[in-house]
Amino acid sequence: MAVTKIHSINETMNAALDYIMNPMKTDDGFLVDGFHCTPEVAAEQYELTRRKYHKSGGKLGFHIIQSFVPGEVDYDTAHRIGMELADKLFGGRFQYVCATHIDKGHVHNHIVSNSVSFVDGMKFYDQKKTLYQIRQESDRLCRENGLSVIEHPGELGVSQYEYAMRRQGQSWKQLLRENIDRFIIQAQSWEEFLDLMRQSKYEIKEGKYISFRGEGQNKFTRSKSLGADYTEEQIRNRISGARRIDTDRNKNLSLLIDIETAFNDIQDNKAGLEHWAVTQNLKTLANTYNFLMEHGLTTREALDEKIISVKQTYSDSLNRIKEIEARLKVIKEDIDNIDNYRKTKPVADKLKTVTSKDKYRRENESDLIIHDAAKKYIRKRFPDGKLPLIKDLRAEQTALIEEKRRLYEIYSDAKIEKSELQTAEKNLAAILGTPTAEKDKSQQRKKNGELE
Fold first, then answer.
1. What is the extent of the structural domain holding 224?
2. What is the pTM for the complete model shown?
3. Is 64 part of a structural domain of the chain?
4. pLDDT confidence tier of residue 347, bands split at 50, 70 and 90
5. What is the full DSSP assignment across 370-437?
């Protein structure tokens, strides 16, 4: 799911482009592309187009922002979606630069376009329906790429962002519900429950209504706003009705036996059963049991080894994808600049022979600017003056794109499997009172006196 915004640029085109192309935000410039312009000199090229059609006044351009839910999309896919959104919106008639920012918790695209078409000199008019069109097209692209979409954005009492985050299980309220549920299972008293919440970096404000504020959250959230099961009274009731399974089991014992024992313990305790039924933890038990049996993970060692293996596959494929993306970025820039240099070289060479150089510069300003930019790039990129053949670059480009496609399949499968394994591991920690592998390592480091 992506949230979109648009606003006009009236007098700060250079500043807008400099901001969106910031190397610190765009993976050292790898996530920046331009349409019918060279990003480094896009502001000048936009101005040339406006001058050509005598439309230098008024709005200079438009700035579109497309923000994705944290963790839902990889950088390359987000950038591609941004380019496709701009292509659809501007119909191949307006110059634009698309930059993907990855420096914050959520990936987001910035698209800065010219206000005047380089094709026919017509202006792009931002109307009330424009934002609706952008959102419609953005939603279509999200669906095509397997991302979530807000189907009912008008739900009362829920903002567009909160609705999307809740569907992804990542909103403050959703995370708070999950943590409360988890610690109710582990706590034997109200005080222990509060201690567990504090250990998870929640600030607690007690009063008429108890409130919690997570790390990075601006405002406190009253627990009663989470639903009927999350009032202070109901949380206390759920704690008193639950019986924590606190056994120090040998890791070599079968996890399946541990889960079956926990399942039976809960069923024997009617008060506990009522609580677990409400929070659907019996379903969690069954799902975890089935998952472990299906994958043959009957011991903690087998689960840990599988997690390490899948994480390695995930990491290796992702690192190679990034290497390929970096190389594809360079290849594209090489092709564009070599092509621009060769196309505009006759115009630049003729400047040396004409009598009225100033007049010639004015008449061929666009080609001369493009030539100078391409020439600077080539001198820096190929100091020995030996340029690669474009056909060889395109052949390498094709091969890398195919390799990246295969790796994305491996990466996507590993990502799903990693998530399933980590969910199973967390469920075991909640059900059996055992730490996850990461927490286990952290506790061991502390025990050995090592620094975190």
1. 171-242
2. 0.40
3. yes
4. very high
5. HHHHHHHHHHHH-TT--PPPHHHHHHHHHHHHHHHHHHHHHHHHHHHHHHHHHHHHHHHHHHH----H
